[in-house]
Amino acid sequence: xxxxxxxxxxxxxxxxxxxxxxxxxxxxxxxxxxxxxxxxxxxxxxxxxxxxxxxxxxxxxxxxxxxxxxxxxxxxxxxxxxxxxxxxxxxxxxxxxxxxxxxxxxxxxxxxxxxxxxxxxxxxxxxxxxxxxxxxxxxxxxxxxxxxxxxxxxxxxxxxxxxxxxxxxxxxxxxxxxxxxxxxxxxxxxxxxxxxxxxxxxxxxxxxxxxxxxxxxxxxxxxxxxxxxxxxxxxxxxxxxxxxxxxxxxxxxxxxxxxxxxxxxxxxxxxxxxxxxxxxxxxxxxxxxxxxxxxxxxxxxxxxxxxxxxxxxxxxxxxxxxxxxxxxxxxxxxxxxxxxxxxxxxxxxxxxxxxxxxxxxxxxxxxxxxxxxxxxxxxxxxxxxxxxxxxxxxxxxxxxxxxxxxxxxxxxxxxxxxxxxxxxxxxxxxxxxxxxxxxxxxxxxxxxxxxxxxxxxxxxxxxxxxxxxxxxxxxxxxxxxxxxxxxxxxxxxxxx
Length: 496
What we know:
Blueprint: H1 2-6, E1 29-33, E2 36-40, H2 47-55, H3 80-93, H4 107-125, H5 133-147, H6 175-190, H7 196-199, H8 205-213, H9 220-236, H10 241-259, H11 265-277, H12 285-295, H13 308-321, H14 326-335, H15 342-357, H16 361-379, H17 384-391, H18 397-405, H19 407-422, H20 428-444, H21 446-483
Helix pairs in contact: 3-4, 3-5, 4-6, 5-6, 6-9, 8-10, 9-11, 10-12, 11-13, 13-15, 14-16, 15-17, 16-17, 16-19, 17-20, 19-20, 19-21, 20-21
Function: The B regulatory subunit might modulate substrate selectivity and catalytic activity, and also might direct the localization of the catalytic enzyme to a particular subcellular compartment.
Protein name: Serine/threonine protein phosphatase 2A regulatory subunit
GO cellular component, one term: cytoplasm
């Protein structure tokens, strides 16, 4: 049967034809149409297209490694026993990589490769493919050759830490091919007929590491595809899960403590948001270490705003799994609390509110003293948005309930800040919110508020007395110095 099938192909009659690896001649031409690669027996086919195929020498499209299998054949024109060989042949044909910086260079070859990729995607999606080990090896090889590459240095303005959201995303000119390769890889990974035990030999640690390196791509479309593929690999290859977690942790460490430059942190966190929700209880020590050493330090970089939503979700998943982690998380936030960035401080206060909303009384009491010392300093911030966001915490009923049960401890920590605001904060909105918070405390425990108001006034009077004494002493020193001017190197002794 195979000999009969192969006998349909014309023999190469001359040396001039030996370089025609596309397998086309005047008697049996291959043409490319919008619906894929089709065969025609007409000797009067369009000469322009057939000549294009002829010009594709073995230097551009290597011959199939499967002897006698023509890669430009359509799957529907091949009997079932030969489809696997044709699949490998087409995969090898797609191992050729083109330069897309010049759209006019190798235009016909690029179009042929794209049509072949579309045909491969359709064939795998149809469920007809049997993923034997040679097929798995060919798919992984083709994916690696097309996808794994070194990105050029990015000299754009993200040297400031990625705070410039106005930067336009950079799109890869080769995306018309890359998208199809990603689609093929995704359908391959998610196929129910793929045996993970066989595939793990080729989708190995090296393959995963190179896949993770691609998350630094400037093209958001590529990062989105990678996010889906890595998530499916994590779900399918259980043996690789610890390695994936360790490799992603290393990316986070390098980003936080070395470069502060990476384009795919948000996508990686989005994957782990789903992974964390699947952790079994009680949480392993390895998972807690991932929280403390990888996730919490991600609050440190200047560009935290680019991925804070995904980071907050991951931390919320941990707290939902184990509420006892709240105190550790809040201490971590206080450790990395911004000092000079008001924008980051507003974001931290927003995340703190989400965490406190999921905090029980026992855990709240463990961290309320350092927490409200920090909130007290935020209340007196000269940046009105920081002070306003801190005061908004009292709009949350759960947080107000926690504060009310611990008002004896919390009120002394923030009352001086409230009084300072009421005595003359420059922003009217902050002043009004401060008066509302004072009113809430008075409704909780008016006697407590009055007692601390008296203490505050006494302390203010003492401070005023000390300031007056200091002012008088300086005035005396200035008067003495004015009557005894110093000349030359004369030693001066000032007596009280």
